[in-house]
Amino acid sequence: MWMFDRLCGENISLDNNCTTAKRQHPIDTYGYGICFTNTPLVICEVFEIQVDKIVTKWNSAVCLGVTTHKPHNLTKIGYGLLLKESWLLHGSSLWENGNDIGPYSLKINDVQVGDKLGMMIAPDSTHNFYLNGIDNGKAFCNLPEDVYGVVDVYGNCCEVSIINQATEAQVAIKKAPTFSGRPVEWNVQTVCDFIESIPECAPYVAKFQSERINGAALLELDKKDLKDFFEMPLGLAVNVCSHLKKYEEKKNR
What we know:
Shape: globular
GO molecular function: ubiquitin protein ligase activity
Domain NHR: 1-165
Order of helices and strands: EEEEEEEEEEEEEEHHHHH
Strand content: 25-35%
Helix content: 10-25%
Mean pLDDT: 87
Number of helices: 5
Pfam family, one: SAM_1
InterPro entries: B30.2/SPRY_sf, Neuralized, NHR_dom, SAM, SAM/pointed_sf
Domain SAM: 186-253
Number of strands: 14
Strand order of the largest sheet: 1-2-13-4-9-10-11-14
């Protein structure tokens, strides 16, 4: 069973048998929310957290990754620790030992309450990140053995909880689908495949099919259109727009 180590940032309080990390006074404090797993990550086993609470005062939210630092050997927790022997996803950038090594396909500054963030070490020592069960591809390679999970509960993110397989069914991990061409070039079937790939959106595919929504038409839709005409809950409508924006930005790089 995954747990957070009791040694954590000075603004963190741990609840639920050390599986929930809360940053105290989140409106007044931005950081000092670093948490570690109490044991090293296990090869081929996804470590996953759920975002429980956010605020809207700050510009960024949550940092996720791994480190070789053994939390039980530490005497003080500060961000400086993560500048050495650590591999992190910060916003949409990958950081290795304190150096920005380039962009990643996932931007975690935009996470919302209920979103699930995960990571896994593969047998070939590569490291992947997940959002709501979707594999966003390789982030790091040649990781050393015995790395611990790191979650920095900072910025807008003020509470997260570990999802344990023993207590809650873990989200099925799916490979992130790829779609050829820019979104404006997609035909109706590609749009339907795209909508189906987004968690909880499969029931709405038939509507996109019957209305003959191609890529150009999809780009004209906003959250209100998806909510009013397609009768999507607001959260799903926001998720569709977010996925489309990220995919379009990726194709325009």
